[in-house]
Design goal:
globular
């Protein structure tokens, strides 16, 4: 098994190294300087290998600290309860979410496909060795931060050490159930395509994680001890069952058939997404439009793809309304919680930069536009003319803004109402700024992603994302939005600054898009 793991590591490292070199060659200016023979250069390959190894080491820790800081430590101030109990409570329910959403073993990846399907490596040895490695990385990655953050909020040392092992136990239990289900029904679930039942379970866990502390209900340390002990016992049992399972090749053949790894008879991951969206397209011939030119073409596209474009937004709106109702109930039941919400609303507007980033659907919508429209239309010369590109850009911008306005308007108006119900504010302008700034953030992200799409068009003819620059801009956008969580400024000053920035940025971006999009909006090879 150790030899198999070493082989799999070399394979993964080679794939990642070549991907790094490819990404470097995609950067503007640099790609014109570097030759295609770069893949043969030993020095460059060593450098890329070092970067790959450093990435592997950093990835063990960076995701964990961001997750715990943003999802747990960052929200403890919302509650008027003992921080140690709230920390344990939220951590427990989020672990249940993570356990069912990410098993590691059932994640269909290219390195699994290469090793098991193409290279015919022993599926059991490959799956188990990499699975055990991932579980070990969970313990190593989480342990320093459960101890650090646990000490900050006053959690006993034994719980600080127990938390990473609790995560591993939950993942083992979920994986064992997946194997049991495979034995019984001869079907295995692809964890990248969660079912409605899974999303329902995750939604309930999130509601209990953040909702129960609002009404002064949490998992106590004694309850956690029983939950942890039971989980460890079940986890050990699951580990034995997982280790003794022998039909890994049969199981992997089910989940590794969808991604296309450079083979024509297989479907690419992008095509899987595209085929899934095709089922949601409405081909009703009765659809028509009273518009003309670009507006007519785009209007028909929106009507036929309305499920893809608006379904997720409607679900967001419903979830947001449920959260607001829960908060309103909480402030009516608990006076201290009411006062705390009022204080938070007056200083936590920067949080909503990250929240609006997460809720905004522009990235997914532009992907749908490419897969279901531009992928084919860009092959026609007339579709690449400046007049058509700019005309479609204008119509799409209107649609994106309208789509994203639904959840943002509910959030803006909802928090203004919450501000009023929790005691209000001395400056009535805060109500206006709260609503307008959140709506402006939504418009900002709509403009930002559409401009990125037209200036950097990241997809190739096989509908695969190949633009390194696009990924870099995406990463910078994420980290800037996440950094805003750390800022606490008065609603009025931050809100006005946000509105001004979003308006100025949007105007400049639109000017750049109108000037350069006709040159940059094209199919990648």
């Amino acid at each position: 098994m150790i030899k198999t793991f070493i082989t799999s590591f070399k394979l993964k490292n080679t794939y990642r190294t070549n991907s790094i070199i490819y990404s470097i060659k995609q950067l503007p200016i640099i790609r014109k300087i570097l030759p295609n023979s770069l893949y043969k250069n030993r020095g460059i390959k060593i450098l890329a290998t070092i970067i790959s190894i450093l990435y592997e080491i950093i990835s063990i820790f960076i995701g964990k600290i961001i997750y715990m800081a943003a999802m747990i430590l960052g929200v403890l101030s919302w509650y008027n309860m003992k921080q140690a109990d709230v920390f344990i409570h939220i951590f427990t329910f989020l672990t249940l979410c993570g356990g069912i959403l990410n098993t590691y073993m059932l994640n269909p990846t290219k390195d699994k496909y290469y090793a098991i399907i193409l290279m015919n490596i022993n599926a059991r040895e490959y799956g188990l060795s990499n699975y055990y490695c991932q579980l070990l990385k969970v313990i190593i990655g989480f342990l320093p931060f459960t101890i650090l953050f646990g000490m900050m909020v006053g959690i006993p040392l034994w719980i600080q050490i127990a938390l990473p092992f609790f995560i591993v136990a939950i993942k083992l239990i979920v994986m064992n159930y997946s194997i049991y289900n495979f034995r019984k029904n001869n079907k295995v679930a692809n964890e990248n395509l969660p079912t409605k039942l899974v999303w329902g379970f995750v939604g309930i866990c999130l509601l209990m994680a953040y909702g129960l502390p609002a009404i002064n209900v949490t998992i106590t340390q004694i309850i956690f001890l029983f939950v942890f002990t039971f989980s460890i016992i079940l986890g050990v049992y699951s580990l034995v069952r997982i280790h003794n399972f022998n039909d890994y090749r049969k199981m992997y053949r089910q989940i590794l058939t969808e991604p296309n790894i450079y083979r024509q008879e297989k479907k690419t991951e992008a095509e899987v997404i595209k085929n899934a969206t095709l089922k949601q397209i409405e081909l009703d011939r009765s659809y028509t439009s009273n518009k003309s030119d670009f507006a007519y073409f785009h209007d028909l596209f929106v009507k036929r793809h309305r499920k893809i474009l608006t379904q997720a937004v409607k679900k967001q709106a419903v979830a947001i309304l449920i959260v607001f109702i829960a908060i309103i109930i909480g402030i009516e039941v608990n006076t201290e919680f009411k006062n705390k919400i009022n204080e938070l609303l007056m200083i936590s507007l920067p949080y909503f930069v990250f929240i609006m980033y997460c809720l905004n659907r522009s990235s997914s919508v532009t992907q749908a536009m490419f897969m279901n429209c531009d992928h084919s239309m860009l092959t026609y010369r007339i579709y690449r003319t400046p007049k058509v590109i700019l005309g479609m850009f204008k119509e799409r911008l209107k649609t994106l803004i309208v789509i994203n306005l639904l959840p943002s308007t509910i959030i803006g108006v909802g928090f203004a109402i919450l501000l009023y119900l929790t005691g209000g504010t001395d400056n009535q302008l805060n109500y206006v700024v709260l609503i307008v700034s959140i709506i402006t953030m939504s418009i900002f992200f709509s403009v930002h992603y559409l401009v990125m799409y037209y200036l950097l068009q990241p997809y190739n003819v096989n509908t695969e994302m190949k633009s390194s620059t696009y990924k870099v801009v995406q990463g910078i956008t994420y980290f800037v939005c996440w950094y805003m969580i750390q800022i606490q400024l008065p609603t009025l000053s931050f809100g006005i600054a946000t509105i001004i920035f979003c308006v100025v940025y949007s105007l400049i971006s639109l000017f750049i898009a109108y000037k350069y999009a006709p040159k940059t909006f094209k199919l990648r090879l």
